[in-house]
Design goal:
N-terminal domain of MutM-like DNA repair proteins; 11 helices; alpha+beta; 10 strands; binds zinc ion
Length: 293
């Protein structure tokens, strides 16, 4: 699944191929979009923007192609003739004199005017894009403290695109590990230090994933993984998809859990559940000092 870093990197490639060039051929698989084929052909692409996980390909004359990849959507770009070899279901082909961009495996797309983009239901409900270089740690911290978001569990919040756009399932686990927080806690229950750590990790992990092609661990761990000739998936993330493997920080076995149908991964030692010792100790002591049977 594409998360913000993957969408942004793909958008850079789409820009290199498409921006400044007129489209020489536009093909849509869905009947509802067929009428736009002649309308879009011949128009120059002026920009490729991203909003969280969505793409907006902007064309001259105020028309835009909106695409949300959902779980499986995927662009493949070609500068050579010939179609990509893939079993995926083709949805859109955009061609110009330099090459072609093929979109596969999503149904969420539309041709929109500038006004429709500005009013679009998904786009207008998005929170700040975590990969927008202008978004600061202070803004992210304020978002966690916002009464609309603070009472929700961190696992819920981090997948809510209205909270912050661009974070998905692997980044959720990785951010919470780097902040050393138990995933089922709520922002409103965190100490100021924990909140600051969470805001810092949210920004740092997202930007690292964008720069390091989805890798969320530190460069030192990547270097060590390469030196040991491990497979990239074995040193790509702190905890995501590392169930039962040793934590890079403490050596404990990483755990896999599920909430609301989505899996998350955590270290039980680095991310301990809220301290239950006091509340548990009281009834135990009471029972011990009670009348013997
Ligand atoms: Zn650990």
């Amino acid at each position: 699944m594409s998360e913000g870093p993957e969408v942004r990197r793909k958008a850079e490639k789409l820009r290199e191929l498409l921006v400044g060039e007129p489209l020489t051929e536009v093909a849509f698989v869905f009947d509802r979009l067929k009428a736009f084929e002649p309308e879009l052909t011949g128009r120059r692409v002026t920009a490729v923007d991203t909003f969280g996980k969505a793409y907006v390909v902007r064309l001259e004359g105020g028309l835009n192609l909106y695409v949300h990849p959902k779980m499986f959507g995927h662009w493949i770009l070609r500068v050579r003739p010939g179609m990509p070899k893939t079993d995926r279901a083709l949805r859109i082909a955009l061609k110009n004199r330099k090459g072609a961009a093929y979109l596969y495996s999503t149904n969420d797309m539309a041709v929109l005017t500038d006004e429709e983009v500005a009013r679009h239901k998904y786009l207008t409900q998005l929170g700040p894009d975590i990969l927008d270089p202008e978004v600061t740690e202070a803004q992210v911290l304020a978002r966690y403290q916002d009464p609309r978001f603070a009472p929700k569990r961190l696992t819920t919040l981090l997948l809510d695109q209205g909270f912050l756009a661009g974070i998905g399932n692997y980044m959720r686990s990785e951010i919470l590990f780097e902040a050393r927080l138990y995933p089922l806690r709520r922002a409103c229950d965190l100490s100021p230090d924990e909140l600051a750590r969470l805001a810092q990790a949210t920004v740092a992990v997202s930007r690292r994933a964008f720069e390091a092609r989805g890798m969320t661990v530190t460069p030192a761990i990547v270097a060590e993984g390469k030196r040991l000739k491990l497979k990239p998936w074995d040193y790509r993330h702190w905890v995501f998809k590392r169930e039962a493997k040793p934590c890079y920080a403490c050596g404990a076995a990483i755990e896999r859990h599920e909430t609301e149908g989505r899996r998350y991964f955590m270290c039980p030692v680095c991310q301990p559940a809220e301290k239950l010792s006091i509340t548990l100790a009281e009834p135990l002591r009471t029972r011990a000092s009670g009348p013997s049977v």
